[in-house]
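Notes for week 9. Today we move from apo structures to complexes. The key idea is that a small molecule is not decoration. When we ask for a structure prediction with adenosine-5'-triphosphate present, the ligand SMILES becomes part of the input, just like the chain. The input block below holds both the sequence and the ligand string. Read it once before you look at the output, and try to guess where the molecule might sit.
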Amino acid sequence: MTPADDLPVTRGIVARAAGPVVHATGLAGASVGEVVHVGARRLLGEIIALDGAVAVIQVYEETAGLEVGAPVELTGAPLRAWLGPGLLGATFDGLERRLDRLAEAGRWLILPGMGSSDPADVGESRPSRGAATATARWTFEPSLEAGAVVQPGDVLGVVAEGPLRHRILVPPDMTAGRLARLDGGRYTADEAIGRLEVDDGGRDLFLGHDWPIRWPRPVRSRRLPEQPLVTGQRVFDMLFPIARGGTAVIPGGFGTGKTVVEQSLARWSDADIVVYVGCGERGNEMAELLASFPKLVDPRSGAPLLDRTVLIANTSNMPVAAREASIQLGVTIAEYFRDQGLHVALLADSTSRWAEALREIGGRLEELPGEEGFPAYLGSRLAAFYERAGRADVLGMPEREGSITLVGAVSPPGGDFSEPVTQASLRLAGTFWALDADLAHARHFPAVGWTLSYALAVDRLAPWYREMVHPAWAERRAKAIDLLAREKQLLDIVQLVGADALPDGDRVDLETARLLREAFLQQHAFDPVDAARPLDVQFALLDAVLAAGAGLHAAIDRGVTLEQALDSEVLGELRRARAWSGDDVAERLRALAAQVADLVAEAPS
Ligand SMILES: Nc1ncnc2c1ncn2[C@@H]1O[C@H](COP(=O)(O)OP(=O)(O)OP(=O)(O)O)[C@@H](O)[C@H]1O
Ligand SMILES: [Mg+2]
C-alpha cells in the first residue's frame, strides 16, 4: 500500500496504546480511514474513529515497545493497494508486503509477531509494488497511440506475464483525456509509460496504479451469472454448483476439510486467476501451499499454477489488525483482475478469523458488543465483502466481461452453525456447502452434507449444463438428491426395525445410495487421478450409478436375489471406477452404465 508521500506532514502524539489500538492527539485535519505512521519505527496504522481531539488508530504491526508521547504522522491517504504486473505468483501479507523471500528462508511462517524478527522488516518496510522490486522490468506493448482519447478503464496495452497477457488499464479514478504520449518499452513500476492530457494539466501513466482497498472498484454494469465455476469436484459441479461470479460459504467444524476444499478449488477450478487469502490460519498450511504450488501445472495452460495465483497470508501468528486488512486486499486484487476482463476465484480461509479480528479490535475500542461479542456491524461488513463478488461488464474499451467468484470458509466454534458468522454469511451466499462432522469422522471426503447444502443458482445454470454437459443433467441431479433424502428416511426405519424387515425395493435404494456416496460423492483430494475430474467424466459416473440403481430394481423384479445382483462383476467395476485414468474414462463409464442397467442378464440366477 502506498500512502501519498508528497503532502505536508501533520504530527500528533501517542496518548494511549492497548495492543493494536492506539489513541493519538494533535492530529488536526485527520479523517477516518486515513493511514498514519506511528512511533519511531513508523508502524503502519489506520484511523478507525475520531472522538473529539482523539484519533483512534488500528495499528497493523506489533505495538510492543510503543511509548506515550511517541510521534504519529498523518499521510493524507487511505489504505491502498498497488495493482499492476508482478502480483501473480507472489505472496503478500495483509498490507501487500511481499513475504515470499522470507518464506523461502522458511522464516515468516514460524516466527511469532511479524513476518520477520528483523526490525528492519517492520514499520518502514513499504509495500512492494507487486513483484516490482525497484529493479524489476516488464515489456509493455501499447495498443493505443498518442492522440487517442481514453476513458477510465480503457486498455492501454499489455505486458506478458507468464501465460497471462496482463492488460494495463487507465486507472478507474482518472478522468478522461487525450494521450500525449504512450510508448512501448521495458519499464519498472516507477517509470512512466505515457502521459495523459486532462483539463487541468497532465498526468503520468504507469504500468500499475493504487486503489483504496475498502472502496469497491466501479464497473459499467452488473450481470447475473449464467455459467458455473467448474471445480472438478463432483459434489460441487454435479450437485451443488457455484456460479461464475457467485458466492459460496463453507462452514465446517474443526478438521472437517475447509482448507482442503479451498486448496482444491485453488488448484483445479477453471478460473483465470486465483486469489487465495489465508486469514488467521496455521502457518504450516500456508507453507505447504506455497511449497506445492510451484510444482503443480495448470491443465489449461501447461504453466505452473502459481503463475495464475496471488497468495495473501495472515497466519495466526501475525498481528490481528493486518488480518482485517488482508480480506480487503484480497478482494481489491480480485477486482483489479476482473477489470481486465478475467474470471477470478477469491478463496478466503477463514472468514471467521477475520470476524474475530473485528471482534478483538471492537473490544479494544470498548464498543457495545453484539451477539457473542462480535461488533454490531459484523453483518454489514460481511455483506460489503460478499457484494464485491459478481459478474460484470467492466469499465473501458475494448468491452469485456469479468467476474469474481467468492468462496469463504467459516469456522464455527464447536461446529455450531447457529453462531453469528455462519448465520450472517449464509444470508449472503448463493451456495452453501455445509461440512458435516459425522461425514468427516467417517472419512467421507469432501464432507459436504447433502441435507443442509444448497445452490440457489441451479435453475439459472441449468441451461448451460443442458448444452455443455448433458440434456439430462438437472433431472439426474434431482434424482441423486432424492435418493440421498430417501436413504436418510430408510435409515431411520432400519434403526427401528432392522434392515431385514425392509422390502427388497427399499434395500435396492439403500444400496444405490451407498454406491452414490462411495463411488461418486467421495473424492480423494490427494489422489493424483481422482482429485479433479472433467464434467463429462463426472456426469458419466453419476449416470452409471443411477443406472445401476435401475439395473438392481429390474434384477430383483425378475427374481434375482439382491445379494446375487450386488455380487455382479460390473457393479464391482463401478465401485472401482473412481480410480480409472486415461483419456477414455467418460467413454468407458458410458459403456459401464449400459452394462449395469442390464444387470439381469449378467447376474447368476
Ligand atoms: N477431500 C479430501 N480428501 C482426503 N482427505 C481429506 C479431504 N478433505 C479433508 N481431508 C482430511 O481431513 C483433514 C482436515 O482437513 P482440513 O485441514 O481441510 O480441515 P479444516 O476444516 O480446514 O480444519 P481447521 O478447522 O483446523 O481449519 C485433512 O488433513 C485430510 O486428512
Ligand atoms: Mg483449515
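The longest helix spans residues 473-497.
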